[in-house]
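Proteins fold reproducibly. Look at a sample protein:
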Amino acid sequence: MKKEISTRKEVYELVTAFYGKIRKDELLGPIFEKHIKDWDSHFERLTDFWETNLFFVNKFKGNPMHKHQMVDAAENHTIDANHFGVWLNIWFQTIDELFVGEKAMIAKNRARNMGTFFHLHIFEARKKD
């Protein structure tokens, strides 16, 4: 039975289920596998990120924009709208499989906004390279 996202444990469940799918994806899997060496730490970090975004707690520290720009540069500036679209579709699918409610909708909306924001800023960074 689907539930609302209301605890860190549920955020962690979402993050790990999502990245389980990402790692198997034909397009995204190889990129993530190349750039993430410690998946357990990544899960904790992304749980902090989403917990901060969904519950307004101050747990996440870092610069995800810079990390995405670095990955794009390492991938010879080949990250494009399709990558973000696949990422977003898998995020929505994972949420819909596991959760319902307001926080699920917020997680979808924030991911959509972040994807657009990251995509635009990756292309801006290319002009500087």
